[in-house]
Specification:
The complex is a heterodimer of chains A (about 375) and B (about 350).
Chain A lengths: L25 H9 L4 H27 L7 H6 L6 H13 L7 H18 L7 H9 L1 H11 L15 H27 L4 H16 L2 H15 L8 H27 L2 H9 L4 H16 L1 H14 L11 H9 L8 H32 L6
Helix pairs in contact in A: 4-8, 4-15, 5-6, 5-7, 8-9, 8-11, 8-14, 8-15, 9-11, 10-11, 11-13, 11-14, 12-13, 14-16, 15-16
Chain B lengths: L1 H16 L10 H8 L2 E5 L8 E2 L5 E2 L1 H14 L5 E5 L5 H6 L5 E7 L2 H6 L2 E2 L4 E3 L1 E6 L13 E6 L3 H13 L3 E6 L2 H9 L5 E5 H8 L8 E3 L7 E7 L4 H19 L7 H4 L5 H7 L5 H4 L6 H8 L3 H8 L29
Parallel strand pairs in B: 1-4, 1-5, 9-10, 9-11
Antiparallel strand pairs in B: 2-3, 5-13, 6-13, 7-13, 8-11, 8-12
The chains are: A mainly alpha (about 375), B alpha/beta (about 350).
Amino acid sequence: MNTFSTGSIVNAGDLPDKPAPIRTDGPIAWLRDNLFSSRTNTILTLVALAIVLYAVPPALNWLVVKANWSGGAEACRANPGAACWPFITARWEQFLYGFYPQAERWRVNIVLYVLLGGIFLLAFEKMPLRKWVGLLMLIPFPIVSYFMLYGGVFGLPVVETSRWGGFMLTLVIALSGIVASLPLGIVLALGRRSTMPIMRLVCTLFIEFWRGIPLVAVLFMASVMFPLFLPPDVTFDQLLRAVIGVALFASAYMAEVVRGGLQAIPKGQYEGAMALGLPYWKMMRLIVLPQALKIVIPGIVNTFIGLFKDTTLVLIIGLLDLLGIVQSSINDPNWSIQSVPYTGYVFVALVFWVCCYAMALYSRHIEEKLHTGHKR
Amino acid sequence: MSVFKNVAAAAAVAGAFAATGVAHADETLEAVMEKGSIQCGVSQGLPGFSNPDDAGEWTGLDVDFCRAMAAAVFNDAEAVKFTPLSAKVRFTALTSGEIDVLSRNTTWTMSRDSDFGEFIGVNYYDGQGFMVPTSLGVASATELDGAAVCTNTGTTTELNVADYFRAQGMEYTVVAFEKADEVVAAYDAGRCDVYTTDRSGLAAQRTKLSAPDDHMVLPEIISKEPLGPLVRHGDAQWGDIARWTLACMINAEEAGIDSSNVAEMMESSDPNIQRILGADGDLGSKIGLENGFCANIITAVGNYAESYDRNVGPDTQLALERGLNALWSDGGVLYAPPMR
């Protein structure tokens, strides 16, 4: 309402809003608030800027601008001072499948597509039959994939695990480790918190044993010492040995993560459950574990990411995972060029980063979804 | 009853996991025939000796030896499966029976021969050498007093350098790295004056330098590295098959037989060639193979010279001259026992 409409020095209506002073809004204010708010911050900003200016343009130059994008080894040999992407394009199938026979690669593709499809479907909570998809992915899928990849049934020719390699092998080891370590870790964590003394002792010993030795030692024992214990007629598959080692190793870490969650649950929850007359497993399944696991999602995903990256260690026992196959490809004399090793390692780093970041994003999404009423 | 159950379950588990049966003494050939292929241990990638090519096929001098054995046993050079092995697990893989033959640029030494397996010959005579920038103006390793030497950690290379410099009464400093790529990068960046490793390795790594032509390999060879394949102890027949596979390739080169002329050579009247190719005599059956096993090898893989030229020879990126690996009649030390 405006009652001073007659005077000439008084405006007839509301003045239009003036833009905020340049000091409080807009990019300059943002810069002042966030980058130059104090003397220390100003110095830090300038140092960071200098580092970025120093490192980023040469890196982009090497990776993109001057890089060899087409042609073969000859093009790279002529221009060895920048990335050699033809090395990746010439070999990406090998990096993906290892030495899996060309005619049988459709089997890997099917498993890969089903896996991606399953993960995609599970990412939507509103999906109908989501529970069933999850159950299918968790139990029959690994078994069916094993037979798809190894063969020997339904007339599929056998492909020995020694021919598996590349990113496919990385996924096989990481996913078997992830799928096996979570339930095993939960059982171990429950065992360690059990009131039964022998159970507690066994679980504690198991966890502390596997946590106390480095993964490299586990792999070495699995691949070097283990065959010497077996009777000479029996040989365990090399890959199976590695997978078991990785899974047991990861489950020990997982157990401690889960135990952290169990300990964070107030005693009243246990007592309340018992007061309702729930037996042990029902109490755990319905009351305690849902709360405990929700708390430790960051820890669980952290363990998964660590496990995923640790799979590269299998290359020391002769399994050519993604990193291993890239390293052995670098040794092809036809690609013996200065830039090829660097290009290969950058490629591996990129692939691993994408996978790990995807896992991190998914975990953040689940955390937000499950964050119901427990914000403190 | 419950004992029986346990045994049955254990047997079922063992049966499910057992990938390949290990052969006892004198049974490797039988087991290999049953499997239908030879399991061959190779490196995880050593230029020219065993490395995967663009198509994902293993190639190299060591790989060719395994293919030759497959050709000898099955008349099919593809009847071989490769197991990439790290240096640390290679001997366990052989003794535990995971592989039938280890063809992995392994230096033949007395302790290895007695501990791990039976070396059946030498398919490459290597030796440790030095590479220097030409700008250093050095023509011989004896002028390297006070040099900074780049090398790999924890290998015999490091020990050989120490021995050599002490014997020459020269001072030096070591700049050591874990991986070959790091050593090359350090040498290329000028952090050391000399790069030392096996001469085949020097040739391979040289192409990774920013200006390969500005570097030269010095003439001195400071160690003996006879590289050869080995098989398990205690199976004389399998050892013979491996030994005469290699001897066949070398003898064929000496007799002028290669993959292109092997068919004509079968008609040759030269008794030596007839014996090598099995047109005359029963040499092959003495080691459990067909008499034409050597002809099969030459047809499928070629003689030693063909394998050498294809993988490490002057026309490849490695560009290694035959040198010590020439036939004894050409000034080298390659001397295979006669096939008669």
